[in-house]
């Protein structure tokens, strides 16, 4: 008998140990079977959340018999969500903290649950609203997970496989507190370029939470936050564009997304600006215009045509395109500028975009995906001013030529000058931006440009100086004193042009000839020179400014990896024509120089504007481009790269 008693006590001890261990494990590992909880909701989640405290760190005890119903939209199945689940109904969502793991076994995604809220706390944690219990830490009450032994008392499990109504969100700006803890869906998003080489989360021993930036083709971005304990932490991030399904959360004022598993990121399409789908169905521009202002272009639709505008005389990101239907339209690229140039033939994905009127002119806004397919020249429609005025509503963004015109300046603004173009039948306005760096002559045999409109005012817009043929008189019809496009330089070699001086005054760094996209230019940089001070000059040949008047200097620049080196332009009337520039007197000219491109290179040239030399006299006047940088072994480096092209001086 004694032996039996000892055995019985030992067995009891073992059983108690197992029970205790199971309780401490705090893990739900049995599949759910309950389907009829026998309770009914009396409040929506949104109605419950109206009671939440508005100050972070505060919590409020729920003393009413409130019951809410929701469907589980997120749990701890993959480890990216820990001791928490998210539920939502048709009105809102809410986070519920539970001090246990393995929640997905009894509360899988899609399960209906009823929460008996009386006795729980509604808490504000960094502006994220949640249901929780309360504990005392360091003498102060704090929100804590509902203990496992009480879960069945507060949370009643209902039917499985209930419908989840994912909230479709079209813009990050639309997300607000009403979306907290809800499953949302975003379209046309992708992992930001700077995060493409990463995995979902930290895989080191630290297993730190990781923020990944997601962005759409309009430049909107949001954080996706993932745990180092997620079972997909080591998975490389997807490289394409597509849909993101996630639970919306906040941390103070920061909007965040939490995914359940990698299937929530369906990013398999082409990235923003990477080209167009090969399955597009192409329509003519005439067909697109016929849809009318405000119309949505059908899905899987593209257009093809030729660029008939020049960025130098058009707003940044705007392009005019004309096709074989003799129709044209303006394209607006707000985020991904494709850097098209005049006469590029292109194909454009316009799927789902809207035909708009901007200042009365037809345009398609928010264009992203496009592709250059070649080059071509559009043959202009020859017309009189009267014909353009009569047909401008239908001819906008198409090219016309008007013969035998006079050109007179009208009004000016901070961005350019209006000119009146007059032929025998009437007058039309042309606006020339300062960035084009061009002043037209007083008359011309012909002018060519695309028809545009500004509200009710018809216009013709020039693209390049060559659009004006046979010009005479006025500032644009005078004598060309200097015209250097650097097309004759040897690439990747020090510039050596007859009459020009290329001088590495300090640091022995000289200007070199470079080429990009078949265009040659002059370039200078202190990068990798290992010189603590770099001063480099590129000086034009001498010009006689006493023989002309109203001289104007124009040129264009690009900056790259800008970190503080400077490029300035000067003139001198006493430079010897060779040797040390510092032996002469140089006066700085006011010109617009490219700036601000801290990573990579600027994608478009910056025009200098019309730099007046009208007050400068002399029979031997030199223009000098002076670069100052530094590449010391230690200390501040100033190694900006500058590119210069199309240096021109015209006088009357």
Provide a descriptive summary of the structure in words.
There is one protein chain. By secondary structure, the protein is mainly beta. The chain is 9% helix and 40% strand. The strands form 6 sheets. Strands 1, 2, 3, 4, 5, 6, 7, 8, 9 and 10 form a 10-stranded mixed sheet that branches. Strands 18, 19, 20, 21, 22, 23, 24 and 25 form an 8-stranded mixed sheet that branches. Strands 26, 27, 28, 29, 30, 31 and 32 form a 7-stranded mixed sheet that branches. A hairpin with a 3-residue loop joins strand 27 (399-412) and strand 28. The longest helix is centred in the N-terminal third of the chain and has 24 residues, at 2-25. The protein starts with a helix and ends with a strand. Mean pLDDT is 89; it is low at 1-25.
Helical run tally: 6
Which term fits the overall shape? elongated
Structure summary, number of beta strands? 44
Classify the helix fraction into a percent range: under 10%
**Separation of termini?**
127 Å
Largest sheet: 10 strands, mixed
Which spans of ≥5 residues are poorly predicted at pLDDT below 50?
1-25
Q: Gyration radius, to the nearest Å?
A: 35 Å
Tell me the fraction of residues in β-strands, as a range: 35-45%
Indicate the mean pLDDT.
89
Key traits:
6 helices, 9% helix, single chain, 652 residues, mainly beta
Quick rundown:
By secondary structure, this protein is mainly beta. 9% of the residues lie in helices and 40% in strands.
List the helices and strands and how they pair.
Blueprint: H1 2-25, H2 45-49, E1 59-61, E2 67-74, E3 84-88, E4 93-99, H3 103-106, E5 112-116, E6 121-125, E7 128-137, E8 140-144, E9 146-147, H4 148-154, E10 155-157, E11 167-168, E12 183-191, E13 210-216, E14 221-226, E15 241-251, E16 254-258, E17 265-269, E18 281-282, H5 285-290, E19 301-307, E20 318-322, E21 328-332, E22 344-349, E23 355-358, E24 361-364, E25 370-375, E26 381-382, H6 385-395, E27 399-412, E28 416-423, E29 426-433, E30 443-454, E31 457-461, E32 468-469, E33 479-484, E34 501-506, E35 512-516, E36 519-524, E37 534-539, E38 552-560, E39 566-572, E40 587-588, E41 606-607, E42 611-612, E43 622-629, E44 641-651
């Amino acid at each position: 008998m004694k032996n039996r008693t000892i055995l019985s006590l030992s067995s009891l001890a073992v059983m108690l140990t197992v029970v205790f261990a199971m309780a401490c494990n705090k893990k739900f590992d049995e599949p759910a079977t309950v389907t009829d909880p026998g309770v009914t909701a009396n409040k929506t989640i949104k109605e419950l959340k109206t009671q939440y405290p508005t100050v972070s760190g505060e919590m409020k005890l729920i003393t009413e018999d409130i019951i809410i119903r929701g469907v589980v939209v997120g749990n701890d199945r993959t480890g990216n969500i820990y001791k928490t689940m998210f539920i939502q109904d048709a009105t809102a969502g809410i986070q519920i903290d539970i001090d246990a793991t393995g929640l997905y076994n009894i509360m899988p995604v899609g399960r209906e649950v009823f929460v008996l809220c009386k006795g729980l706390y509604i808490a504000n944690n960094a502006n994220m609203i949640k249901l929780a219990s309360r504990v005392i830490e360091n003498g102060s009450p704090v929100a804590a997970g509902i203990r496992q032994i009480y879960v069945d008392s507060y949370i009643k499990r209902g039917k499985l496989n209930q419908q989840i109504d994912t909230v479709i969100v079209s813009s990050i700006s639309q997300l607000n507190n009403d979306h907290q803890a809800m499953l949302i869906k975003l379209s046309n998003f992708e992992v930001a370029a700077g995060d493409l080489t990463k995995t979902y989360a930290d895989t080191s021993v630290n297993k730190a939470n990781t923020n990944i930036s997601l962005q759409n083709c309009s430049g909107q971005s949001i954080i996706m936050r993932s745990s180092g304990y997620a079972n997909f932490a080591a998975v490389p991030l997807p490289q394409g564009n597509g849909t993101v399904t996630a639970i919306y959360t906040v941390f103070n004022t920061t909007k965040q997304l939490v995914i359940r598993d990698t299937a929530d990121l369906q990013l398999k399409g082409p990235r923003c600006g990477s080209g167009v789908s090969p399955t597009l169905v192409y329509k003519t521009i005439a067909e697109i215009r016929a849809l009318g202002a405000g119309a949505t272009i059908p899905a899987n639709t593209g257009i093809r045509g030729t660029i008939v505008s020049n960025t130098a005389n058009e707003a940044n990101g705007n392009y005019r395109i004309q096709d074989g239907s003799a129709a044209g339209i303006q394209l607006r690229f707000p985020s991904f500028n494709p850097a098209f140039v005049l006469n590029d033939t292109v194909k454009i994905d316009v799927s789902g975009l809207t035909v708009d009127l901007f200042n009365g002119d037809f345009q398609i806004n928010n264009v992203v995906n496009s592709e250059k397919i070649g080059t071509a020249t559009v043959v202009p429609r020859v017309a009189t001013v009267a014909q353009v005025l009569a047909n401008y509503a239908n001819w906008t963004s198409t090219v016309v030529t008007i013969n035998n015109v006079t050109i007179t300046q009208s009004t000016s603004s901070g961005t350019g000058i209006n000119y009146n173009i007059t032929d025998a039948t009437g007058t039309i306005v042309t606006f020339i931006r300062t960035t084009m760096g061009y002043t037209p002559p007083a008359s011309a045999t012909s002018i060519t440009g695309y028809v545009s409109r500004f509200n009710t005012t018809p216009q013709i817009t020039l693209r390049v100086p060559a659009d004006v043929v046979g010009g005479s008189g006025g500032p644009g019809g005078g004598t060309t004193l200097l015209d250097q496009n650097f097309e004759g330089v040897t690439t990747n070699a020090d510039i050596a042009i007859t009459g020009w001086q290329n001088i590495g005054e300090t640091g022995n760094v000289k200007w070199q000839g470079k080429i990009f996209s078949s265009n040659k230019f002059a370039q200078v940089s202190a990068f990798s020179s290992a010189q603590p001070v770099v001063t480099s000059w590129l000086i034009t040949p001498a010009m006689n400014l006493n023989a002309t008047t109203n001289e104007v200097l124009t040129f264009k620049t690009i900056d790259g990896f800008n970190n503080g080196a400077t490029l300035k332009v000067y003139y001198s009337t006493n430079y010897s024509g060779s040797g040390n520039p510092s032996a002469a007197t140089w006066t700085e000219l006011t010109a617009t120089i490219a700036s601000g491109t801290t990573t990579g290179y600027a994608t478009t040239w910056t025009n200098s504007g019309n730099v007046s030399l009208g007050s400068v006299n002399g029979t031997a006047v030199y223009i000098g481009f002076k670069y100052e940088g530094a590449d010391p072994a230690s200390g501040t480096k100033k190694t900006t790269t500058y590119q210069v092209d199309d240096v021109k001086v015209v006088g009357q």
